[in-house]
Amino acid sequence: SSREETETEESMAAAVFSWTSRMARLAVLGLVLVACCLALASAEDYYKILGVSKSSSPAQIKRAYRKLAVELHPDKNGGDEEATAKFAEVNNAYEVLSDSDKRSVYDRYGEEGLKQQGGG
């Protein structure tokens, strides 16, 4: 009958709408996940900048920082722009990794977490 066909069509339309809406939500979640991964991948790795591991002690981090700071210090490199830029990166990395609160935020949320807290 015509009534049964209409009910079937409405039921199918509702199912398609429900499926489409779920797929759209999944697509949005996928895009958010990709954006987060790209942000993390492009973020500077403060541990790599200082040449230490994530499990390094504060003393090891300080030692690595001092060594790099001496090597890259602008006074020692006669205005070498690359060395000056690296010196700034080293200082920024040390500022975060030498502060236990900032380091904890960085370890959990990366650079973006520091920006949201107003540090780093």
TrEMBL record:
What's a GO cellular component annotated to this UniProt protein? endoplasmic reticulum
> Has keyword Zinc-finger?
no
- Could you tell me which InterPro entries the record lists for this protein? DnaJ_domain, DnaJ_domain_CS, Hsp70_co-chaperone_J-domain, J_dom_sf
Which residue numbers delimit the J domain? 45-110
Q: Which GO terms describe its molecular function?
A: misfolded protein binding; protein-folding chaperone binding
Family annotation (SMART domains): DnaJ
Question: Which GO BP terms apply?
Answer: ERAD pathway
Q: Name one Pfam family in it.
A: DnaJ
Q: Which UniProt keywords apply?
A: Chaperone
Superkingdom field: Eukaryota
- Keyword Metal-binding: yes or no? no
- The protein, known as: J domain-containing protein
